[in-house]
Amino acid sequence: MHRTDSGIEKLRKQVDKVDSTVLKLLGKRLWLVKRIMRMKKAVGKPLVDRRREREIMSRARKTARKMRAPPKAVEKIFSTIIRESRKAAWLE
User: What is the domain range of residue 37?
Assistant: First the structure.
């Protein structure tokens, strides 16, 4: 095996670990969102909080810029996370 191939494999293993961590964190986030939705339903609060969603998006964009990640890509990812979390919580 070429040294480059070995280096690529090591990096891919690191990517796999990051992916696993991301999935665990998404699972935890979903669990938390479901708990929040249940609590809101119990007290008759609106299930969607657009102000909170805007805060999350703003924080994500700021963090992306600090990390030199593409803000538009991060915005799309967080938009999807929020939308899919809401859907999953509503289905419960």
Answer: 3-90
d(CA 71, CA 63): 8
CA distance 72 to 78: 10
Q: In sequence order, which ranges of 44-70 are alpha helices (DSSP H)?
A: 50-66
9: Cα separation from own chain's centroid: 26
Only one residue has tokens 């805060």, namely 55
Domain of 50: which CATH number?
Answer: 1.20.59.10
Token pair 């480059």 is at which residue? 4
Q: Are 44 and 87 contacting, i.e. CB atoms less than 8 angstroms apart?
A: no
Q: What single letter denotes the amino acid at residue 41? A: K
Give the pLDDT confidence of 28-56 residue by residue, as tens digits.
999 999 999 999 999 999 989 999 999 99
pTM for this prediction: 0.83
| Residue written as token pair 């996370």 | 81
Total domains in the chain come to 1
